[in-house]
Amino acid sequence: MRIRTVTEEDLPELHRLDNEVFERNAYPYFVLRQFFDAYGGHLLVIDDGANLLGYVFATAPDDKVSWILSLAVRPGLQGQGLGRRLMGEILDHVRSAGVREVWLTVEPGNDTAVLLYRSMGFLAEDAPREDYFGPGQHRLVMRLTL
Fold first, then answer.
1. Which of 18, 31, 67, 78 is the most buried if burial means most Cβ atoms within 10 Å?
2. Could you give the CA distance from residue 21 to residue 26 in angstroms, rounded to a whole number?
3. What domain range includes position 125?
4. 47-71 tens-digit pLDDT
5. φ, ψ for residue 134 (rounded to 5)?
6. What is the pTM of this model?
7. Do residues 19 and 32 make contact, with C-beta atoms less than 8 angstroms apart?
8. Residue 89: pLDDT above 90?
9. pLDDT at 83
10. Domain tally, the chain
């Protein structure tokens, strides 16, 4: 398995993977395309030589701040450390680009993700932000100082 920057040829499979992981909350293809065009160097995938197993997206640094927009690992492969590997790689990547603060949001009930982020040093705000992504779409906002 290797972690690498996404390529344009990866976009159809990336879209399928995103739909498989996030179902009704998956990004439309055109959004993934725009992320690729805008932040391609900050969009990493992990593959086994034949298939994409996961991905992580981060924004390009803006005033030494970056956001993790999404982290996903193919169902059935979760819990094997792939998400931690992807997060470690993207954090190294943005740190080397001069980022000093990384932000992300996570569904408050996604205990596995919250525990991963906490174990990597992210701190959460005191309470989830209600309706962050719209009615009923609450998010826990977390921050890491590098």
1. 18
2. 8
3. 2-145
4. 999 999 999 999 988 889 999 999 9
5. 120, 175
6. 0.95
7. no
8. yes
9. 97
10. 1
Do residues 61 and 96 touch, judged by C-beta distance below 8 A?
A: no
CA-CA distances (angstroms) from residue 127 to 71, 73, 108, 109, 124?
A: 22, 26, 9, 12, 8
User: Which pLDDT does position 26 carry in this prediction?
Assistant: 96
Task: Enumerate the β-bridge partners of residue 52.
Answer: 47
CATH number at residue 121: 3.40.630.30
Q: The tokens of 87 are what? A: 């997060």
86: its two tokens:
């992807």
Largest CA distance in the chain: 42
Average pLDDT over residues 73-83: 96
Beta strands in 23-139 (DSSP E): 43-47, 52-58, 65-73, 101-106, 123-124
**Cβ–Cβ under 8 Å, residues 132 and 105:** yes
How far lies 49's CA from each of 2, 8, 53, 57, in Å? 8, 16, 10, 20
Cβ pair 107, 138 in contact under 8 A: yes
Higher pLDDT, 17 or 62: 17
